[in-house]
Amino acid sequence: MPRRDCLNHPILGDIQVVTGPDNVLVEVSYGDRPSPQDNGPLSGVRLRLNDADEVDPPPAGAQIAQYLEGTRRHFSCELELRGTDFQVAVWRAIARIPYGETATYADIARAVGRPRATRAVGAACGRNPLTLVIPCHRVVGANRALTGYGGGLPRKQWLLRHETAASAAA
Length: 170
Hints:
5 helices, Arc Repressor Mutant, subunit A, alpha+beta, two-stranded antiparallel ribbon
């Protein structure tokens, strides 16, 4: 049975954290947005995000709280990515964008071997079931403008400023 936790952030609002068996993270979403889990025919692919320096990481919900406090830059947990093969490839590529940096939709399209699929990359971002952990907020338009985000542009703007400020403070 999945475990559902809710974090409340003064700017981002309610954040739903859902873990499945073995504490595998299956969903992180904003409470005022529909769940992105209805992704059609899906494959469930496990992905391990691992901070090599962390031996015994805290639960995913605690890691997300630390990220929001500015004390965590990397997640160390197991994820279940439920999506089409293309969506999973996009989410894996996005997971590699370093903290405090951005990539364009075209960068991600090239990274997954589909250089003309920038709109499809945008659609995959919109279906991301693990907001914050798979950092779609780090994906920007070709001219580096903030475009589209399933959580809304004010959240995207806050997240990018938050990462920039935390990087500068380190």
